[in-house]
Automatic annotation (TrEMBL), chains A, B:
Residues 2-67 form the HMA domain. This is Heavy metal transport/detoxification protein. It holds the Pfam family HMA. It comes from Plantactinospora mayteni. Keywords: Copper, Metal-binding.
């Protein structure tokens, strides 16, 4: 299991949290996504390392922005 | 056609707008709902007067608060 945290910009409510969780949770190998709305922290648990470009695309698809780390 | 405006508290993003529009739009006789996110103004067009209690319940169901007018 790999757990990694990312920063996502633009989430303002529970619907935003759901949108990001759904898109990121659909990535290959991802087993859990938790989002802290107040800080914008998105914590992703996966079996294998997540492709950063796929992650960025998933966050973008949900309508938000992955902050460059 | 009757058009009336209401004030709704707590909407923060487009998802919130959709949630309110969907719930209020499902009320009997309602033909159109427009929401101004910045001001919280919800404008409802209907064939017949909308029951204030049904409106309040719909906004509540969406997860927001109708400001007492």
């Amino acid at each position: 299991m790999i757990t990694q945290s990312y920063q996502v910009k633009g989430m303002t409510c529970g619907h935003c949290v759901n949108a990001v969780s759904t898109e990121v949770g659909a990535l290959p190998g991802v087993t859990e996504v938790t989002v802290d709305l107040a800080s914008g922290a998105v914590t992703v648990t996966s079996n294998d390392p997540v492709d950063p470009e796929q992650l960025r695309a998933a966050v973008d698809e949900a309508g938000y922005e992955l902050v460059a780390s």
